[in-house]
Amino acid sequence: MNSSDILIETLRLRLRKLRDDDADALSEYRSHPEVARYQGWSSPVSREAAASDIREYGGTDPSAPGWFIFAIEIKTEGLLVGEVGVRLHDNKMQADMGYSLDPSHQGMGLATEAVTAVVSSYFERGVRRISADCDARNIRSVALLERVGFRFEGLRVANRYAKGEWIDELFFGLLSERRS
Ligand SMILES: CC(C)(COP(=O)(O)OP(=O)(O)OC[C@H]1O[C@@H](n2cnc3c(N)ncnc32)[C@H](O)[C@@H]1OP(=O)(O)O)[C@@H](O)C(=O)NCCC(=O)NCCS
Question: What global pTM score does this model have?
Answer without folding.
Answer: 0.97
